[in-house]
User: Fold this.
Amino acid sequence: MPMARLLVIAAIVAAAACGNSSSPNPPPPPPPPPPPPPGGHSTTITIANNSFSPTPDTIPAGNITFHWSAGAVTHNVTFQTGPGTTLPSGSGNRQDGSADYVTALVAGDYTYHCTIHAGMNGAIHVTP
Assistant:
């Protein structure tokens, strides 16, 4: 019986030694990338049905395009407010088939409207 007891103790010691390895734990996985900034729905604003779409919107700094959709009557884009003292130049009057109006925007808040149609307003928040 003492031999059986000795074998049981030896088995317990061997099992405990196997569970405690000397190799280091693997490093944790890298953290996930940060989420994208809010907004950024589109850098193209569509002009149709006496409205700008989407508005309001949040976009990154850079170029924004205003596109006159099929069937759009004459409209314009005239900036009312923006950061700094110089506003982007307006689009002039355009209609369906006209070239898109592209302008560069820096970080800040902008409001714009169509001077032909009362109540046709838009707003853009531009992130750095």
